[in-house]
Specification:
The chain is of the alpha+beta class and 438 residues long. The chain folds into 4 domains: 95 residues, no CATH class; 90 residues, PAS domain (Beta-Lactamase), CATH 3.30.450; 84 residues; 143 residues, Histidine kinase-like ATPase, C-terminal domain (Heat Shock Protein 90, 2-Layer Sandwich). Helices cover 53% and strands 20% of the residues. It contains 12 helices and 12 strands. The strands form 3 sheets. A 5-stranded antiparallel beta sheet has the order 2-1-5-4-3. The protein has a 5-stranded mixed beta sheet with strand order 7-9-10-12-11.
Length: 438
């Protein structure tokens, strides 16, 4: 309509006498201004509708939405569409707000302490459990932890990657064992650390109690099995060497078969006593392990050294040993204790390979997300399912003459050096013992 009106302004100049041109031009010019004004008013209303809707969404004012009727049908349609859009945003916002409220309530009510730290060491998330655990009422920055737990604060600040460790902190009047896990993550392009604190003192106490219970059962079983025949044999010899009135028989009164019985009984007592002494010596090995002396160990050198110790035995038994390890991998541990643990594992593999063909042991090392792993793998007879959970129990052994100390001692030595050990095996498919260090 505006374009047509502009054409009509020029049309009289070519069609009518000059005296009528001015009047017609004024009429069409006035009409043109009215049309332009109406256009701007229409555009202004559209702009205000969009602007108000966007401002409300930016301010999270989803309860207010544009309304009213307009003289332009297209504006009514725009208004309706904006109302529907705002309602959709409102529903989505309510849904995510409900989920956020649920997560906040969940985090607040769990026993695990949680803090989230941004790049400026500001605490952006925390729950009541962490305040109670650290004994601090207000934690705004990581430095707020320093007065009571300076080492812990520095450890968290310097950790730029995922890490898991156990430490001891004082809660109230008691010292508690706390498992701490640090996770580095990126949110909206910004790095944050999520730190969780879990009090494992109760679990450790229960596990320790169960371990003592199992150990006492083993001790009771072994000692009872050794002492019972000793008591029986000593009573038999007493009956042989004494007559009916309790007097000790002379040499002449003893028959040859009685002397033979006494000799056999003494031999049996000696054997059972020796076994009991060996059992107690094995217990002393577990009880008297010295604290680790930490040093930097190059893994490839360690594995080569261990393989060299078994060189003659492996050649004699036709066992092929292979080493797979990068030359730059290093760990911090007590070298002697780690060597002893690996020696026990390789000895187990040698035993598992008896009677097998194509005997093979593989010593390997590799990196994983949180640290370095060592493994001892063989293609022997494997471990039965029912024994997998029992192989690390002290004095449990599947060998005829086994003491049951090797694997339990190996696990203890590895744990002393802040490592952990696990096993993967299937019957007749071999076994793999994996040692992991963070």
């Amino acid at each position: 309509m505006i374009l047509a009106n502009m054409a009509l302004i020029l049309y009289p100049n070519f069609r009518y006498p000059i005296q009528n041109v001015l009047f017609l031009t004024l009429i069409f010019t006035f009409t043109l201004f009215a049309q332009v004004y109406a256009l701007f008013r229409y555009l202004g209303r559209s702009h205000r509708l969009l602007n108000n809707a966007l401002e409300m969404m930016n301010a999270d004012l989803y309860s207010i939405s544009p309304s009213g009727s307009n003289q332009y049908h297209s504006l009514d349609e725009l208004n309706s569409t904006l109302n529907k859009t705002i309602d959709s945003f409102k529903n989505i916002s309510n849904k995510y707000q409900s989920q956020l409220n649920y997560l906040e309530l969940l985090i607040e009510n769990i026993d695990t302490g949680i803090i989230s730290i941004n790049e400026n060491n500001k605490i952006v998330l925390q729950n009541s459990a962490i305040k109670k655990m650290l004994g601090i009422e207000k934690i705004n920055y990581l430095d707020d932890i320093s007065p009571k737990h300076s080492v812990l604060s520095k450890t968290i600040e310097k950790s730029n990657h995922n890490r898991h460790f156990v430490t001891e902190i004082k809660i109230g009047e008691q010292k508690q064992q706390i498992s701490i896990k640090i996770s580095a993550l990126k949110l909206l392009g910004k790095t944050q650390k999520l730190v969780t604190f879990h009090n494992i003192s109760t679990e450790l106490a229960r596990t320790e109690s169960e371990a003592w219970s199992r150990l006492l059962q083993v001790l009771n079983h072994e000692i009872f099995n050794s002492v019972t025949p000793l008591s029986s044999l000593s009573n038999t010899m007493k009956m042989i060497i004494k007559n009916n009135n309790g007097r000790v028989k002379t040499q002449a009164e003893l028959k040859d078969e009685e002397i033979q019985d006494i000799a056999e009984s003494i031999e049996t007592i000696h054997l059972r006593s020796s076994n009991l002494i060996n059992f107690i010596n094995g217990f002393k090995k577990l009880a008297k392990v010295p604290p680790p002396k930490i040093e930097q160990i190059k893994i490839i050198d360690l594995l080569k050294h261990i393989a060299g110790l078994f060189n003659d035995e492996l050649n004699e038994k036709g066992i092929d040993i292979q080493i797979i390890a990068a030359t730059d991998l290093e760990i911090n541990a007590d070298r002697n204790q780690l060597e002893q643990a690996l020696i026990n594992l390789i000895s187990n593999s040698i035993y598992a390979l008896e009677g097998r063909e194509n005997k093979k042991i593989v010593l390997a090392s590799s990196k994983f997300d949180q640290g370095i792993s060592l493994s001892v793998r063989d293609n022997g007879k494997g471990i039965s399912v029912e024994n997998l959970d029992r192989i690390f129990v002290p004095y449990f052994s599947t060998r005829k003459n086994g003491t049951g100390i090797g694997l339990s001692l190996s696990r203890y030595l590895i744990q002393l050096n802040n490592g952990r050990i696990r096993v993967k095996s299937e019957p007749n498919e071999g076994a793999e013992f994996i040692i992991e260090f963070n």
